[in-house]
Amino acid sequence: MEAYKNIYFHKLDIYKRLFIKKKGQADTQAKNYLDSKGRNSLLDDIIANRLKNNCITIKDETGSRMLEILDHDKDYIFARIGKFQDLLTVHLRNKKTYVPEEISRTVDQELEIFTYFLIDRDNYVISFLKELSAPPIRTLQYLIDNNFGHQDIFGEIKGVIVEDAIPLLKDKDTIGTISYKVAVPSDNVLSYDDIGLSQKEFIHLRNQKHAEIEVKLVAERNKSAFESGNGIEEVLKKILSRTSRVKVRAKDDGGYMQSYDVVESLLTKRVKFEFDRDAEQIQKEIFSKLKTTYETNKQEIVNYVRKE
Q1: Quick one: 275 and 129 in the same domain?
Q2: 148, part of any domain
Q3: Organism's domain of life (predicted)?
């Protein structure tokens, strides 16, 4: 079975909280960020001393989550993170007969919704396979808080952000649909056809601040909307003079179309997975795709990581 999924990139930072005393003033807080050696020491301690059957409970702001270490070495940590799902709204259904069947479990079992991530132990960049209903990657920072907060050591998860995506988009081989929203002030005249109302209907409106129009510039299938990167730069800069809410679909040759926010876009890579019904093979496929996607794009990803 083929499935197309986005891999998201984040970074785990760990810091020691310090209180700086100033004469005649209240104490101020500062953060002393740990280097990779310090971060590895903490994670090694968790792996060696705090796991039960390779698992550890994480308590975040909404409840308890489960972290399971699937594999680790000096270079990577491969794990999954899950949460328990209430069985009241979940059951099995036969695809042919449509007959439902309750999911059986023992008194000590719960249904768990989970997803996977891979940590590069050199820089603590995380490749995260985001899944609906599974815990967000932000939960991982509470692993540090739960275990080392009493030592004033805490975690932070930050997305790998492309602040200005124009240079990235200029290098893409195919530019697809460009979509954006613009606000037209109420004193600008729009025809009734422009907003889909008749004059009779329009007169009922009161106190309108502006009309918001969504524009989609749709390219032909499998063809690029621009001949050169200079063209897209010129067009996007003009659009950005009106609005910052601009999305562009683009891809490299041999890659897959994905959507980019031109301003403050979370860096992702769209990847095709080949899944079968065997759980072990699915896990191996996910590990392989997370690792190869990260290593293939490592230089680009690291370039966008914000330095502390």
Answers
A1: yes
A2: yes
A3: Bacteria
